[in-house]
Write a structure and sequence with these properties.
mainly beta, 4-stranded mixed sheet, 6 helices, about 65% strand, globular
Length: about 700
C-alpha cells in the first residue's frame, strides 16, 4: 500500500497544471496536421518553422506526444527495433544510436515527417505502436551539418569538440560521410565518513578528483539501387579514452592527518571499436518483399586501476587491477513481407547471431614491498542463437489494428577458462498489440508480450571496484536470461495545436529475476573458500510501472498579451517491484530500481527574434542495492540544465548552456555476517559534489 500511495501522490502532483476547457475548440480550429482517421499524419516544414530546427533530431523532438525509443535490452536485432525510420528504413547498425543518426541529417533536407500511431505501424519496427518516418528530399546537391563545442569549467579549463556530416546524391546513389569528436573533464570533491555501527565517527576521508573522457569516430554509408533491389552499406570506427584521478586525505575524529591515498584509474584506454553492416531489399513476387540484413562488430574494452594508501606508522599498501575484454558480435537476418491476404500484412523470417567475449582480469596487492598476486580470472563466453519469427498485422477497419506474432529462440551458451559451463535455451516469445484510433486526436493501445532480456557477458567475468574498498563483483557462470510477461495499456490524446497527454500503465510477471546474489566459491573437495556478490537469478518477482507525459503549450493563455512560444513538458515515471531477498528471505524492491523519477522542461521560442531559452530539471528517488553483507542507498541531487540560443547568427545557431551536474549521497551499512544474521558494524557516508559545466555550441547546416 505504501508504494500505491507514492504512485497516487506522484500522479496528483504532476497534474497541478489544468488543461483548459478551450482544448476541444482549438482542436477543431487548428489541428496539428492533416490527420485521417487511421492514425497517420504528416508534419511539414511550416510546422517546425517556429522552432528553427538545425537537424532532423530537432524536428522529431518537436512532434507532439512522441518520444524517441531505442534499444531496450532485449535479445536479438529484430526485437530491439526503435520507433524512428529514415526514408522508410531501419538503420542496419547497433553501434550508432538513432539520436546520433538524426543529428547528422540537415533539417533543410527533410521533406516531411510521417507519424503512424497504430499496431504494426511499419514492418521495419516490430512491436512498436507509434513510428516516425523521416522522409528526405530528393536532391543532387551536397548537404550536411556541422557543430563545434567548447566545454569549460573554472577548475579544469576548456575542452573543444566537434562534428560534421555530409551527404551527396548522384542518381539512385547516396553517399554519406561523418566525423565526430568529444572531450569532457569533470572535477569532484567531498567527504567520506567511516563510523561505527552506532554512528560514532572513526575516520574522515576527504577526496578531490578529476576525471575525463575523450572520443572520436568516423563513419559512412552508401545507399543505392541495382535493378529492382535497394542496397545499404554502412561502417563506423570509434576510439575511446578515459581516466580518473582522485586524491584522498585521512584524518581522525580530532581532525589530525593520519594518512593519504591516491587512486589512478584508466578506462577505456585508447580502445578501438568498429562495425560494418548493410542490407539488401528486393521484391520476390508482386506481393512478397524480402530484406536481408547483416552486421559485424568487434572491439576492445580495457580498464586499469591503482590505489595506493599511506598511513602514519604503517607500510604503504598498493592494490592494482587490470582488465582486458574483447567482445564481438555477428548478426544475419532475413525478413519477408507478404500482403497476399486482404487486410493482413504478414512478415516471416529468421535471425541468427553469434556473440563472443574474451574477458581477462588480474589483480595484485603489495604491502610493504611484498606482492601477492590473486589468481587471474580468464573467461571465454560464446553464444549462438537462432530465432525464426512470424508476425501478422490485421486491419479490422479504419479504427482498429492488431499485430500478433511469435519469435522462437534456440540458443547455446558456453563458458570456458577459469569458469566452465554449457547450457542450451529454448524460448517462445509471443506478442499481441491492439490499437484503437478513437478519434484523430485520441489513441488507445493494449499490449501483451513475453520478453527475454539480453545477458551482459561481462557479468560472467570477475571485476573489482577499488573505489569501494576493493569490493569484488564475482563472475557467475550460472547466470541465465531474465524472462518477463508484460501486460500494458496506453492512452494518448492530442490537444491545442501542439499539446499532448499520454499515460501508460504496465504490470510484469518476471521469472529468473536478475539481481545481486551471493556467489560462492568452493575448492575441489566442495568446501566454501569465499563468498562474493555478483549478478545472478533470484527467482520470481513482480513489477508495475506508470508513465505520465504532458506537453502543454501556453499560447491559448499568453497570445492575447502578445506572447507566444511558451511550452511546458512534464514526464513522470513510477517503478514498483516485489522480490524475495535471497539473503534474508523477506520481500523487498529490486536493486538499483528507483521508485520514481520526474523531469520538467520549460521552453520559450520568442517569436521573430531568433532567441530561445529554456530550463530542464530532473529529480529521482533514492536507489537501493542489497549485497550479501551490505545494504547501500544512493541518492542523487537535482540535475538542472539552463540554455539560451540565438538562431539568426550568420554561421548558424549559437547556444550557451549551463549544466548543474547532480551531487550524490551514498550510505553503506556493512554487517559482521550477512544481512540476515549479522549486526551493522560499520556505516560509511559519502558525499560528492561536482563542478558545473558550461558549453558554448555553434551548429549549422549547408
Amino acid at each position: 500500500m505504501t508504494d500505491l500511495r507514492h504512485f497516487i501522490s506522484l500522479l496528483l502532483s504532476s497534474t497541478v497544471v489544468a488543461i483548459p476547457s478551450v482544448v476541444h475548440a482549438e482542436d477543431a480550429a487548428a489541428p496539428v496536421a492533416q490527420a485521417p482517421v487511421d492514425g497517420q499524419r504528416q508534419f511539414r516544414a511550416d510546422f517546425f518553422a517556429a522552432y528553427g530546427p538545425v537537424t532532423a533530431l530537432d524536428m522529431v523532438r518537436r512532434i507532439p506526444g512522441f518520444s524517441i525509443e531505442g534499444s531496450d535490452g532485449r535479445r536479438g536485432f529484430g526485437d530491439n527495433a526503435g520507433n524512428v525510420l529514415i526514408d522508410g528504413d531501419r538503420p542496419s547498425t547497433k553501434s550508432d544510436d538513432i539520436f546520433t543518426i538524426l543529428s547528422r541529417i540537415p533539417a533543410s533536407e527533410v521533406d516531411h515527417l510521417a507519424l503512424t500511431e497504430q499496431a504494426g505501424a511499419d514492418a521495419e519496427t516490430q512491436g512498436q505502436g507509434q513510428v516516425v518516418n523521416v522522409v528526405r528530399k530528393v536532391s543532387a546537391k551536397i548537404s550536411g551539418t556541422y557543430e563545434g563545442n567548447l566545454v569549460f569549467g573554472h577548475r579544469y579549463g576548456f575542452r573543444p569538440s566537434g562534428s560534421a556530416s555530409t551527404t551527396l546524391r548522384r542518381g539512385d546513389t547516396t553517399y554519406e560521410l561523418n566525423f565526430s569528436s568529444y572531450s569532457e573533464r569533470i572535477y569532484g570533491y567531498g567527504p567520506e565518513d567511516f563510523k561505527t555501527g552506532t554512528g560514532a565517527l572513526v575516520e574522515r576521508r576527504y577526496y578531490r578528483g578529476k576525471g575525463g573522457y575523450d572520443e572520436a569516430s568516423i563513419g559512412g554509408a552508401i545507399k543505392s539501387r541495382i535493378g529492382g533491389a535497394k542496397i545499404n552499406l554502412n561502417g563506423r570506427l570509434r576510439w575511446n579514452d578515459g581516466f580518473d584521478r582522485r586524491l584522498g586525505e585521512y584524518s581522525d575524529v580530532a581532525g589530525a592527518i593520519t594518512g593519504d591515498e591516491i587512486l589512478l584509474r584508466g578506462g577505456p584506454i585508447s580502445d578501438l571499436n568498429y562495425e560494418v553492416g548493410g542490407d539488401i531489399e528486393f521484391g520476390v513476387a508482386p506481393k512478397l518483399n524480402t530484406k536481408i540484413i547483416g552486421l559485424y562488430r568487434s572491439g576492445t574494452e580495457s580498464n586499469d586501476s591503482t590505489i595506493e594508501a599511506m598511513r602514519l606508522g604503517q607500510p604503504t599498501a598498493l592494490f592494482e587491477t587490470r582488465s582486458r575484454n574483447k567482445p564481438s558480435e555477428a548478426v544475419a537476418r532475413i525478413q519477408n513481407d507478404w500482403s497476399g491476404i486482404g487486410n493482413h500484412a504478414v512478415q516471416f523470417g529468421g535471425e541468427i547471431a553469434y556473440n563472443r567475449l574474451d574477458a581477462r582480469f588480474s589483480a595484485a596487492n603489495t604491502v610493504g614491498g611484498a606482492t601477492t598476486n590473486f589468481p587471474p580470472s580468464d573467461v571465454l563466453v560464446k553464444e549462438t542463437r537462432l530465432e525464426p519469427f512470424v508476425t501478422d498485422v490485421w486491419t479490422l477497419g479504419p479504427k482498429w489494428k492488431i499485430e500478433a506474432g511469435v519469435v522462437a529462440e534456440f540458443s547455446k551458451l558456453t563458458l570456458s577458462g577459469d569458469s566452465t559451463a554449457s547450457r542450451s535455451f529454448k524460448f517462445i516469445k509471443p506478442r499481441a498489440i491492439a490499437t484503437w484510433t478513437v478519434t484523430p486526436q485520441t489513441t488507445l493501445e493494449f499490449r501483451a508480450e513475453r520478453q527475454v532480456a539480453q545477458l551482459d557477458f561481462g557479468e560472467f567475468a570477475t571485476s573489482i571496484d577499488v573505489a569501494l574498498g576493493n569490493q569484488v563483483d564475482a563472475g557467475n557462470a550460472d547466470l541465465v536470461p531474465e524472462k518477463v510477461t508484460n501486460l500494458s495499456a496506453l492512452i494518448r490524446h492530442k490537444f491545442l495545436e501542439r499539446g499532448s497527454i499520454q499515460f501508460r500503465g504496465s504490470y510484469q510477471f518476471v521469472s529468473d529475476t536478475q539481481d545481486l546474489v551471493p556467489v560462492t566459491q568452493r575448492d575441489a573437495a566442495g568446501n566454501i573458500t569465499a563468498q562474493f556478490d555478483g549478478a545472478g537469478n533470484i527467482g520470481s518477482s513482480k513489477r508495475w510501472d506508470g508513465e505520465l507525459e504532458i506537453t502543454l503549450p501556453f499560447d491559448w493563455l499568453t497570445k492575447p498579451a502578445g506572447i507566444t512560444g511558451i511550452e511546458v513538458k512534464y514526464t513522470g515515471h513510477y517503478h514498483g517491484s516485489r522480490v524475495t531477498d535471497p539473503v534474508t528471505g523477506e520481500k523487498r524492491r529490486m536493486s538499483n530500481r528507483p521508485l520514481w523519477h520526474q523531469e520538467w522542461q520549460l521552453r520559450h521560442d520568442i517569436a521573430d527574434s531568433g532567441f530561445v531559452y529554456g530550463v530542464t530539471t530532473y529529480v529521482q528517488e533514492a536507489s537501493n542495492a542489497y549485497f550479501l553483507n551490505e545494504f547501500r542507498r544512493q541518492k542523487e541531487g537535482v540535475r538542472t540544465n539552463l540554455f539560451v540560443e540565438y538562431k539568426k547568427f550568420k554561421l548558424g545557431t549559437l547556444r550557451l548552456q549551463y549544466t548543474s551536474i547532480a551531487d550524490f549521497n551514498r550510505d553503506r551499512f556493512i554487517y559482521t555476517g550477512t544481512r540476515a544474521t549479522g549486526a551493522v558494524t560499520q556505516i560509511v557516508n559519502r558525499q560528492r559534489f561536482l563542478d558545473p559545466l558550461w558549453q558554448l555550441t555553434l551548429s549549422g547546416k549547408f
